[in-house]
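Researcher: Please predict.
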Amino acid sequence: MRMRLLTSVLLLAGCLDSSDGSGAEAGTLRVVARPAGVFITAANGVDTLDTGASAQVSMSTRALHHPSRTVVVSPSTPTAFDVVPSMPAPVRSAPALASWTFCSNTGAVCEFLGLRDVRLIASNGAAVTQTAFGHVPCATNAFQHRDPAPGQAQRCEYGPLKTTQLTNPAPGALGMGSVVAVAHGVSGIAVRRTRAARWTPTATDGSGSFRTTCQLTGFQFTDPLGASRRATTSALRVFFGNTGADQNSTASSMANSGNSSCRGGTLDRTLYSFPALVDSRNGEVQVPSAGVFLYKTGFNMDPASIRPLPSGLVMIAGDAKARGIQQYVAEWLCRDRYVANTGLIPQCDVSDQVQLWVYFPQCWDGRNLDSPDHRRHMAYPVYRNAPARSSCPATHPVPLPQVTEILHYDVRAGASLATWRLSTDDYSRSTRGGLSAHAQWIGGWDQSTQAAIVTSCLNRAVDCGVGVIGNGTELW
């Protein structure tokens, strides 16, 4: 019923032809195919193709096709992520951190988890720094063209994960103490951001789709859609999108205030939220390496029938009280190998990735933007195989885009997936964690932008890739 995103692949090979129009000099290419798309970074650090711009990945041949050449790529390597869009100007002296970790030499990409200080340091100790999320090309132009020591050998290093302390309203749960250290989120983008599209939407399997990515905005012991809306009764949650979210958030406040950690800046102030993932051995809160969000026509739905998500819509998918598999609603996957969906966190290998996919209902009753349980105003379609079409039930007749929220967690050496649990997994620890998987969506889209996505991508049954609106522009 569902098409999985591209897995991550990596290659260090090949040359850029000057005819590709990128402006990058010839040299080693770093090619990364991600669930969010494809980008290429040359040896000089220039991102020649952001996600999807005239490069495509064929998973059947595992080859990357670029206007200047075709190269074979290899699977199963760590995912790369976007740099924080608005970076502070680097400084000449590196901060006095407790430790710096070697990341890469110049000409490669420095990859890391979460928000960190990153420095380009020369052999004589001179350095320039910036704060970034997920990855930074190790080159002077990625540090605002600051060269710490021209002519000297240089490398990139990153500092410790930036964290903040939260007061835990329920100490002892999942091994968490009265004060919990969690990864610091990004401050987000305060403006609308679009540019000319660098990728052309393509017809695929008869469905339409749009993808976006958002960076982590933080963790809170609050639940904007909880029955009590009070921190004293809320499990720890992880947030993406609108940076202003708290227990008092509403659809109106999300749509009209707050920065955004998503592509397009404040054009997408939607709040995307999940229960946090915790290692119950020691209470360590796991840091997601990516948040990917899909808007699709849905399984075998008529693309022309899909209507824009109404302003003010709120919804939940999945059940925090579930104690069994939530078929067609939530599933846990390994990125690099197939595992049957049991509703439980799978045992993925080191250097693989655990992924949580949550599928939202897409049929609206046409009247209510919310309901007491945040579910009754929405319903899943009646699914049918071709040549028949899936359709919405008579009680919920309006077909909307199917929203899918996806979290990625890297599996690192020493990880104990058997003791990973969602903050809402309050059942016996003799059963693996993951059964209470669910997600929240509080709409914050600019309505004209979202309408363009529906009409230009979904109704036309084309794959718009990552951030491409379909009308000649893209979010970035």
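Model: The radius of gyration is 22 Å.
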